[in-house]
Amino acid sequence: MLVITKRADDPSHWNAELVMSFELRSKSRLRTTASSGEEVGLFLEAGQPLRHGEVLQAEDGRRVRVVAAPEALLHVSCANPRELCRAAYHLGNRHVHLEVGEGWLRFLDDDVLAQMLLQLGASVERLSAPFNPEHGAYGGGHHHSHGKEAAFQYAPKLHQYGQGA
């Protein structure tokens, strides 16, 4: 089994590829198979989904490139930027993972959300494509610190812009 424990610094070369859905790219511990058929074990830091094109470093020195698999998506466009922002607001309110493009949004196919967007006046089309959603403003995973637990007492990355963080 090819054991992967870290991300490579240089994405320019690789020996194998992992074709993965967004759900699988979001897991830090995973047993899967490379395109070559070789079994792969991922043991990575939690909270940082793998991105399309990223290269990982295996314990034996080999390098593996991550490839985003085509998935069933909804592609949303609107008549103007205000309406697109409105659609993004309603999707964000539902904690939907979004890929944001120039004048469009994409997310995993969902009939209920498609109907909501149509009622808001958006154009919605189904397509199959790699899905690369935004990571989120604070990096890492989704955290709530209702009780002021020590584990959640950190300065958000968003507020450290320009300070080398």
UniProtKB/TrEMBL annotation:
GO molecular function list: nickel cation binding; unfolded protein binding
Location within or outside the cell: Cytoplasm
One record GO biological process: protein folding
InterPro entries: UreE, UreE_C_dom, UreE_N, UreE_N_sf
The entry's keywords: Chaperone, Cytoplasm, Nickel
Chain ranges of the UreE urease accessory N-terminal domain: 1-64
Keyword check for Mitochondrion: no
Pfam entry (one): UreE_C
GO cellular component: cytoplasm
Source superkingdom: Bacteria
Family of this protein: Belongs to the UreE family.
Task of the protein: Involved in urease metallocenter assembly. Binds nickel. Probably functions as a nickel donor during metallocenter assembly.
The protein's name: Urease accessory protein UreE
Organism for this UniProt entry: Pseudogulbenkiania ferrooxidans 2002
Gene that produces this protein: ureE
